[in-house]
C-alpha cells in the first residue's frame, strides 16, 4: 500500500486493497450512534408499512409497585409467557374508546 500523497508509485495489481475496519460509511462519512438508531427506526417503520403482518415496535416505560411486578413475573412463569406477551394480551382486552 502506498502513501496517499505519493503520485509516482504505481499500485501492484495482484495485491488486493485492504478493506477498512468498522461500519461502512454512508454518504462518505460515518454515522453517529443517534443517526444509526434513527435510521434503524425509520427502516422498522418502512418494513411494517410494507408488510402489515409485521409488528411496529413502540417503547413503553412504566413504573409499578414491586409487589405488582412480582405478581406479573409469577403469572408469566405460570403461563409460559414473557412479560411483553402478557402485557400485550391484557392491553388487547381493553375496550375501544
TrEMBL record:
The keyword DNA-binding applies. Residues 1-11 have a biased composition (Basic and acidic residues). Gene3D superfamilies: Met repressor-like. Residues 1-58 are annotated as: Disordered. GO terms for biological process: plasmid maintenance; regulation of DNA-templated transcription. The keyword Nucleus does not apply. This is Protein CopB. It comes from Deefgea piscis.
